[in-house]
Amino acid sequence: MSQPQLNRRSLLRLSAAAPAAALFASDSLCSVLFAGNASAPPADARLQALRDLNGYFPFTPSASPAEWAVRREYVIRQLQVALGLWPMPERPPIQAVVHGRVEREDYTVDRVYFESSPGLLVTGSLYLPKAPASSPNGTRPTILCPHGHWANGRFHDHGDAEMQKQLESGGETDPVGGRHPLQARCVQLARMGCMVFIYDMLGYADGSSLTYELAHRFDKQRPELSRPDHWGLFSAQSELRCLNIMGLQTWNSIRALDWVISRADCDRTRIGCTGASGGGTQTFILTALDDRISAFFPAVMVSTAMQGGCTCENASYLRVGTGNIEFAALAAPRPIAMTGADDWTVDIETKGLPELKRHYAMLGAPDNVQAKYMKFPHNYNLPSRMMMYDFFNRTLGLGVSAIAERPYIPLTQEEATVFGEGHPAPDRSESAEVTLLRSLDAASQKQLAAIAPTDAASLTEFRRVIGGALEVMIGRSLPPSGSTRFEKQEQAATAGVTRFIGRLQLTAHSEELPCIWLLPDAWNQQAVLWIDGHGKSKLNGADGAPIPAIAGLLKAGFAVGSIDLLLTGEFTSDGEPVKESPRVNNSREFAGYTLGYNHPLFAQRVHDILTLLSSTVFHERQPRKVHLVGLNGAAAHAIVAAAIAGRQLASLAVDTQQFRFATITGIRDPHLLPGAVKYGDLPALLALCAPLPSAIAGESEDSLPVALAAWKAAASHLRLLPTATPESLAEFVIAQA
Predict the structure, then answer these.
(1) What are the residues whose beta carbons fall under 8 Å from the beta carbon of 35, sequence distance 6 or more?
(2) Which residues of 673-693 are buried (b: 16+ CB within 10 A; e: fewer)?
(3) Which of 62, 194, 622, 680 would give a disulfide with 68, using CB separation of 3.0 to 4.6 Å?
């Protein structure tokens, strides 16, 4: 049966010389429907090693401001979705507790704490100059200082030995500044006339109701906190809601900015942000998301190399197709300065800075970006701080003629802590963790419930929010015309039906799918994409003959196409779908280390359906209608594919088997799609398909209220099938002809 492979794009072309025989009488047709995984594995790039945080992350500047505006909107939305901030949560006025002022010669330090959300605390130290503000209205330039991964955070003390090393290396010149570099920058900026707020990362110093070990050293999954009814951070359930440490820290940064701006003494036109290492990550993420930051200085973090190794610097979707250089570019043309060191940022002047310079020049601000390599280990030492002081002096108009750090009296831990008599520390138990997450989830669900579709206008907003999130979660749209190619391996014809077997290629992504098409001679110019969760082999039964549903479609004149979705069928050694999704080589069981850099397996399987759909709707034979069927574990994939490219479909028919993402308990479940529960689970994703003619088996009116409401708002009707069989799905499709 084998024939030479032909380099053809055609999926449905009939051979003029193909013989006709009795329908399905050929043993070869039945036996090859499917050979399972007998042929060579697909030449698919996704079978290679996964991308991780230690990859290479270059940035390619856009060609024009208009092109960049489109890209920027998407990447910012990607950040928001990844961090659980799409749409932005409600931000009521902050009720901060400011107490325990510590007096120094020329500045003061207040202790501050407040809730960014119920149960989630921001804790920090507020430095204020004693000298009168230079502005006529008494406001001061303000700088936020996220501190990064320095031991004990705001309480950090290098100790005598490390301080001595700093003095000997030239990294520091003053013993006090050398021991307390975090305090040193706050003191100097206050002496330069700035209000400075240094606040804790989660789990550091006084930081919030979460422990350091949980927030930054999470290692193994906790089965007792991974149930649908009782879950904590890093679980499948928290992933399904985009609740992660990086998102919580970013929210604290946004609310810290909200608080300082609410103060009467804050100059809202002169806001800076600076931090090093993990604090550098917080700096460029906050600045990207919030236009109120005027200038920013992320030290020793922006790089094309390692992107941040802590659980607090990673989240599912965060760096899929992007990286820290582009994150820094999102704030352009606002001024940025960066330092590099003898770490992953060592090449910043040659890898990253040239691209950022072109990017800023394209936006008309070529002088607003700078970076300098400092020959020191990972640090925020005096030479780096001096560069930062000069940067803010220029960009925020501080007007300081001579900048030099002077000796100061550092705060003791007792003077810095916000908790004590009359100010009790929060509970840091597992119970508090669960309660906090439940509260955040409830607030999110309330916010999204308010946009449930009731009419055409609300349906538009529903699509903007839920559909906007789904675009990020899947990360790909319908491939354009001409992007696919069919490599034919075998062709046979019997009694009015021609079978084509081969590999469907999406060339731009080096993806290849085992594929089959069945084309009746009396073709009705319509095609059915039949997607089975166990692969294309399910087109035929145990006896080798096409199942009745497929036979009925062919008899009615429909062409039928099917593929093996990624890691099903010919992708696996036994022809069965994998039980667990692949993961990167990282011993810490955090989904963000894998899904922060690679599409979820669920999304990749949706990509496969979109590839098949593109190859069909843009085929040279131009089918009049294309229908999509999903069953046996592929219904959710088909629904999502239809939500993304529904205008290209004539109908959708699926058997959901009552699947819900909310039932998933493992972070390597092949159906895991982070954010799916946050954005309404399967019913809400189905609602995005309205008003596409659709039939759903395995559901009831009570189980799909938001979807039924969407079809009603679109002046259409969603059909619920009384029986969940392949035949019922095929009958619906035939009725749409």
Answers:
(1) none
(2) bbbbbbbbbbbbbbbbbbbbb
(3) 62
